């Protein structure tokens, strides 16, 4: 009994010590009508970092599909999706997190990529090679990048 308790305590404190411990895995997300209330990391998002992810081609590349007046100096604003000005007024933080994690939970058949999803793809290709994907699937954005982007979107008020 005592040994079990000690082992448990050691396990717990080891877990709490690791920064990763609070990160919610892509396969463990709890959706409620498309929204995700719980932070993916427990660490508040950084809006400035979020703006970088939104602009960067190699990361979110949101501007390929969305126009954002606040980022007017970033080239290549697309019009596939709606303009994101005022997104922080239209949506709650939980709704925005849900849209980012898996847009298809909010918009049926959305063209918007699911940025924090590693399972349930119908047929996953190996980027542009025409071959099947091999090995583990990494989400397009990390849990903290999702939180940063949510924080940035919350600053977009009308
Ligand atoms: C391939 C194009 C594409 C990309 C890339 C994309 N989106 Fe979208 N997004 C859409 C479309 C299309 C919609 C409209 C919903 C639908 O699918 O009907 C949408 C909807 C949204 C909405 C809700 C719009 C509203 O009414 O306010 C938000 C917020 C959003 N996207 C944020 C993002 C962010 C942040 C990124 C980058 C991390 C991103 N999107 C990347 C296509 C895209």
UniProtKB/TrEMBL annotation:
Key words of the record: Heme, Iron, Metal-binding, Signal
PROSITE patterns found in the cross-reference section: CYTC
Signal peptide: 1-21
Domain of life of the organism encoding this protein: Bacteria
MF GO annotations: electron transfer activity; heme binding; metal ion binding
One Pfam family this sequence matches: Cytochrom_C
SUPFAM superfamilies registered for this protein in UniProt: Cytochrome c (SSF46626)
All copies of domain Cytochrome c, residue ranges: 45-157
NCBIfam families, per the entry: thiosulf_SoxX
Name of the protein: Cytochrome c domain-containing protein
